[in-house]
């Protein structure tokens, strides 16, 4: 095939995915989808192998491929033009029940030629707790509707009995219906555009280009791996739920042109819903691998072939049915993300050629707060605080992490405007801003996270309730690299306000009068004059903080990114009358280095 | 002297892992360099920016060159957990 035709088809495939994403966003009415971009669209070959991974949450790319294959196995001989399938069982392929996959076969001239697949986190899935994340769940049976595969549309006709059954099992069925219809529209657009491509170039040429694209990705990743040093790199993540501590332990081994992610040593599965199934772990390790190792390689089956995962059965990274998994995407999956990001970062840093691509761990912990209750218009609102997607960039070899700069597993994540949240829920923001001292110190500083506080406002029921399935309040998770410090931790604080009005315009947590109760797991009220304070983690730092130019440290203090205490104690910068003193700074840095020599491991 | 990167802060030179700043040898390439590094341990709860709920047991291990004091690596750990070990395979 001539290279120009190949390139045109490759770019067209990417554009098909992009247009399908736009469709998904435009039809959906959920903030989590069209504001937070908790979505994914991708294309698959006729056998279900990943052809063109799209944007959105990348840990879905491999899971949706397995979902396609599961549908092919289950419906062998019953897959027709115009069909559409649904799958959301985490033990078959999905990550958790509320991330529903809708999967459509694409036929050309009567022959199955490809699949499109997409997901959104639906408004509700009928789990014990509204919104899908279910900290009260004790097993998969209490985590809502779950299907290992069903046919939702048969030859272009909606199966009304199936549709009604699903909507009969969820809260806010009209919103779930909109979520499902947005995915149907998305798949329709992907199918139409792909068929147009087949019509223009013919089935044989497009199929050849798809096969070559996968071969090219495999070849290019294997070449890259051969350029990187052979070795092993380790990482460890801690999770805490209700006093119990879990570990995700990773040893990544690279030999020749193959990469093995070995999670041996990770904790046994939890009784809480932070577990992930093996498909979730596989997706979790690929989420940072795609952007960090394959930033110039098409994300498809070819990237998957050189990579192998070892995940002990019955562990927190490969739990056994019926263990609960509804919090997986912000639980163990994210720890797998972080661990893989850390080891890949260290491997890149060991390479002369690729060191400048290395990065500390980015925003490492979602806080996943779902609010639910009667809104100011008398209707039901369920939805996530999208600040969880705001993220924080990890420091890079070439510079600081970006403040509130997103996250590795989702290159297009973002948060909604304050006004959007206030229009959706009966709440009022007291503040939302960058969080001082949250970016991990280093020669290059990790990007800051943020902090916010809300109170109930104009609520017919006096307030609303919210589900917290947070972790990351006990242990830092945004690891630093090469001497960089980790990013700061999350906090969730329920402020039991006193009866005065002095807190109505509080400008900080300290200003908020009343009893402050740290929380992290369960269902809580936001009523009366009470407040909810949330802070989210920053990115990890890179390099020795004492090597950061003093002028940059001063700029950080001036900008409010770090405190004077951090400047003095961690960065070794000295001020005299509020102004940088270079001589004292040099002396202090010498002294801090000397203190490091007091003890040998 | 044959040199190559081991990490952003360490080099491999003549079969030894050395500080990248002062080139002080720390360990043979197949041994743990961290055992020979200067280690200071700081409770994460004592660092600027620590949260309200930070676990009192969790520490930041800071491994520095025992010669020049350059910070080589950090790791977050509970006290009972071993050092994380990274290895580069040296040909031959």
Unreliably modeled segments of chain B: none
Strand fraction of chain B: 35-45%
Mean pLDDT of chain B: 94
Task: Give the number of DSSP strands of chain B.
Answer: 8
Give the biggest sheet of chain A.
7 strands, antiparallel
Oligomer: heterodimer
SSE order of chain B, one letter for each helix or strand: EEEEEEEE
- Structural class assignment of chain B: mainly beta
Q: Which descriptor suits the 3D outline of chain B?
A: elongated
Largest interface: A-B, 67 and 48 residues
> How would you sum up the global shape of chain A?
globular
Question: What do you see in this structure?
Answer:
The complex is a heterodimer of chains A (601) and B (92). Chain A is of the alpha+beta class. The longest helix of chain A has 29 residues. Chain B has 92 residues and is mostly beta strands. In chain B, 0% of the residues lie in helices and 39% in strands. In chain B, β6 and β7 form a beta hairpin. The interface between A and B is large, with 67 and 48 residues.
Structure at a glance:
Chain A is an alpha+beta fold. Helices cover 30% and strands 23% of the residues of chain A. In chain A, strands 2-1-5-4-3-6-7 form a seven-stranded antiparallel sheet, sandwiched between helices. A five-stranded antiparallel sheet of chain A has the order 14-15-20-17-18. Chain A has a four-stranded mixed sheet with strand order 8-9-10-11.
Descriptive keywords:
heterodimer; A: 601 residues; alpha+beta; five-stranded antiparallel sheet; B: 92 residues; mainly beta; elongated
Question: Which helices and strands appear, and what pairs or packs with what?
Answer:
The complex is a heterodimer of chains A (601) and B (92).
Chain A lengths: L2 H25 L3 H4 L4 E7 L4 E7 L3 H15 L9 E4 L11 E10 L2 E11 L28 E5 L2 E2 L1 H8 L5 H29 L1 H25 L3 E11 L2 E12 L2 E5 L15 H16 L7 H4 L2 E4 L21 H18 L19 E6 L5 E5 L33 H7 L2 E8 L15 E7 L6 E7 L21 E6 L18 E4 L2 E7 L3 E5 L14 H10 L4 H6 L5 E2 L2 E2 L1 H15 L5
Parallel strand pairs in A: 10-11
Antiparallel strand pairs in A: 1-2, 1-5, 3-4, 3-6, 4-5, 6-7, 8-9, 9-10, 12-13, 12-16, 14-15, 15-20, 16-19, 17-18, 17-20, 21-22
Helix pairs in contact in A: 1-5, 1-6, 3-7, 5-6, 7-9
Chain B lengths: L2 E3 L4 E4 L2 E4 L5 E4 L9 E6 L15 E6 L6 E7 L9 E2 L4
Antiparallel strand pairs in B: 1-2, 2-3, 3-4, 5-6, 6-7
């Amino acid at each position: 095939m001539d290279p120009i035709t190949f390139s045109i088809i490759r770019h067209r495939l990417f554009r098909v995915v992009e247009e399908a994403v736009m469709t998904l966003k435009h039809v959906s009415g959920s903030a989590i989808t069209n504001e937070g971009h908790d979505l994914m669209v991708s294309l698959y070959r006729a056998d279900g192998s990943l052809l063109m991974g799209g944007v959105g949450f990348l840990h879905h790319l491999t899971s949706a491929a397995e979902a396609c294959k599961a549908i092919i196995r289950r419906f062998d001989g019953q897959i027709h033009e115009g069909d559409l399938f649904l799958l959301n069982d985490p033990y078959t392929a999905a990550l958790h029940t509320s991330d529903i996959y809708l999967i459509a076969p694409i036929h050309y001239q009567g022959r199955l030629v490809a699949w499109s697949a997409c997901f959104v986190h639906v408004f509700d899935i009928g789990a014990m707790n509204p919104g899908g994340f279910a900290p009260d769940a004790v097993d998969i049976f209490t985590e809502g509707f779950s299907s290992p595969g069903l046919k939702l549309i048969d030859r272009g006709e909606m199966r009304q009995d199936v549709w009604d059954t699903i909507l009969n099992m969820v809260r806010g069925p009209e919103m779930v219906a909109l979520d499902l219809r947005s995915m149907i529209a998305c798949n329709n657009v992907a199918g139409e555009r792909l068929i147009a491509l087949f019509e223009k170039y013919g089935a044989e040429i497009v199929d050849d280009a798809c096969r070559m694209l996968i071969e090219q990705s495999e070849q290019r990743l294997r070449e890259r791996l051969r350029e990187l040093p052979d070795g092993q790199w380790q990482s460890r993540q801690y999770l805490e739920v209700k006093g119990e501590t879990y570990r995700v332990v990773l040893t990544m081994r690279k030999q020749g042109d193959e990469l093995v992610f070995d999670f041996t040593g990770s904790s046994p599965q939890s009784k809480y819903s932070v577990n992930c199934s093996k498909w979730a772990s596989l997706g979790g390790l690929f989420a940072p691998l795609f952007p960090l190792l394959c930033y110039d390689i098409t994300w498809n089956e070819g990237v998957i072939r050189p990579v192998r995962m070892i995940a002990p059965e019955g562990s927190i990274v490969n739990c056994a049915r019926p263990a609960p998994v509804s919090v997986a995407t912000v639980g163990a999956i994210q720890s797998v993300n972080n661990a893989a990001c850390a080891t890949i970062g260290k491997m890149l840093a060991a390479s002369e050629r690729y060191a400048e691509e290395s990065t500390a761990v980015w925003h490492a912990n979602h806080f996943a707060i779902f609010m639910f209750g009667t809104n100011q218009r008398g209707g039901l609102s369920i939805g996530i605080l999208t600040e969880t997607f705001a993220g924080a960039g990890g420091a890079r070899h070439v510079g600081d992490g970006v403040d509130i700069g997103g996250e590795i597993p989702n290159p297009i994540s973002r948060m909604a405007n304050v006004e959007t949240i206030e229009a959706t829920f009966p709440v009022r923001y007291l503040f939302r801003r960058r969080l001082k001292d949250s970016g991990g110190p280093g020669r290059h500083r990790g990007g800051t996270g943020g902090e916010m506080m809300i109170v109930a406002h104009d609520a017919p029921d006096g307030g609303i309730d919210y589900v917290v399935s947070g972790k990351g309040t006990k242990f830092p998770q945004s690891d630093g690299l090469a001497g960089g410090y980790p990013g700061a931790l999350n906090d969730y604080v329920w402020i039991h306000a006193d009866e005065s009005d002095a807190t109505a315009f509080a400008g900080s947590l300290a200003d908020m009068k009343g009893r402050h109760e740290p929380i992290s797991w369960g269902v809580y009220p936001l009523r009366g004059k009470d407040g909810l304070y949330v802070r989210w983690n920053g990115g990890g730092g890179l390099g020795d903080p004492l090597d950061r130019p003093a002028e940059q440290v001063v700029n950080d203090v001036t900008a409010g990114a770090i405190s004077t205490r951090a400047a003095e104690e961690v960065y070794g910068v000295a001020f005299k009358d509020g102004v940088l003193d270079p001589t004292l700074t040099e002396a202090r840095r010498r002294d801090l280095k000397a203190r490091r020599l007091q003890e040998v491991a | 002297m044959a040199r190559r990167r081991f990490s952003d802060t360490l080099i491999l030179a003549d079969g030894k892992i050395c500080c990248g700043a002062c080139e002080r040898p720390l360990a043979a390439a197949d041994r743990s360099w961290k055992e020979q590094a200067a280690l200071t341990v700081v409770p994460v709860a004592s660092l600027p920016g620590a949260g309200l709920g930070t676990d009192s047991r969790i520490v930041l291990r800071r491994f520095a060159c025992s010669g020049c004091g350059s910070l080589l690596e950090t790791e977050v750990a509970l006290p009972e957990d071993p050092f994380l070990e990274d290895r580069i395979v040296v040909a031959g």
